[in-house]
Amino acid sequence: MLFDFEALPARERYKLLVSTIVPRLIAWVVTQDGAGVVNAAPYSFFNAFSDDPAVVAIGCGPRPEGGAKDTLGNIKATGQFVVCLVPGSALEQMNLTAIDFAPGVDELNEAGLHKLASTRVKPPRIAESPVAFECETFQMVPVGHHTIVMGKVLALHVKDEAVLDAEKNYIDTPALDLVGRMHGRGWYTRTNDRVDVPRYTAAEWAALKAAKG
Ligand SMILES: Cc1cc2nc3c(=O)[nH]c(=O)nc-3n(C[C@H](O)[C@H](O)[C@H](O)COP(=O)(O)O)c2cc1C
């Protein structure tokens, strides 16, 4: 089946994108407004795109009734945000923070979540999250009614139990128990289904092919 993106309305393109580009880890983005009120919301248009500098990005759409979401407004105002990742144990609470609350509502309080101080930026991180990236705005790119917000990572927190070797920066990734977004509204997946596929050099591949005859 061919889907002609040039002919499809945005809503239909959205459905096709989010049901095929899966799973998507969820950036649980914590910001503060000018008065210091904390805001948190999930964004699954999210990934890492560079390591030098380390840059992560989220795609922030408009509010249903139009206008910028609080996350985008706060980042524009302060240039700072924290991206926390979502563990299976906090799925329900993450879902609560996606409610379209009025500006000035602290979603972390609403969801019964706890805050921990960040080290390089003012917005706090979420205590229930095993991974938090402290970010400052690197660049913002308007894309239609979305804005891609790129954040330069200034610091990373990983829960102690998931650090295998701090000197070598080895992380026990399955111990993070992260969840990703799957097809459609309300569907998620865990990240503990692993397969190990070795990488080959050209010489190793040639040797393997020769061995197989
Ligand atoms: C799992 C999940 C992922 C989401 N991903 C996005 C996203 O990538 N971009 C977006 O604009 N909204 C996304 N949303 C919707 C926002 O979280 C929602 O509009 C929220 O109210 C925005 O809050 P804010 O105004 O405090 O930023 C997502 C919601 C959920 C539940």
Strand order of the largest sheet: 3-2-6-9-10-5-4
Number of domains: 1
Q: The CATH topology, please?
A: Pnp Oxidase, Chain A
Query: Which outline best applies?
Result: globular
CATH architectural arrangement: Roll
Largest sheet at a glance?
Answer: 7 strands, antiparallel
Percent strand equals: 25-35%
Beta strands, count: 14
Helix count, DSSP H or I runs of 4 or more residues: 6
Measure the end-to-end span.
38 Å
The CATH superfamily label reads Electron Transport, Fmn-binding Protein, Chain A
**From the alpha-carbon coordinates, what is the Rg to the nearest angstrom?**
19 Å
Write the topology of this structure.
Layout: H1 10-20, E1 24-25, E2 27-32, E3 38-43, E4 46-51, E5 54-60, H2 70-78, E6 80-85, H3 91-97, H4 107-110, E7 115-116, E8 125-126, E9 131-143, E10 146-158, E11 163-165, E12 170-171, H5 173-176, E13 179-181, E14 188-190, H6 202-212
Antiparallel strand pairs: 1-13, 2-3, 2-6, 4-5, 5-10, 6-9, 7-8, 9-10, 11-12, 13-14
Flavin mononucleotide (FMN) binds at residues 26, 39, 41-45, 59-61, 69-71, 95, 98, 100, 181.
Could you characterize the architecture of this molecule?
- It is a single chain.
- With 213 residues, the chain is of the alpha+beta class.
- It is globular.
- The longest helix is centred in the first third of the chain and has 11 residues, at 10-20.
- Strand 11 and strand 12 form a beta hairpin.
- 22% of the residues lie in helices and 35% in strands.
- The protein has one domain (10-212): Pnp Oxidase, Chain A.
- It contains six helices and 14 strands.
- The two termini are 38 Å apart.
- The chain binds flavin mononucleotide (FMN).
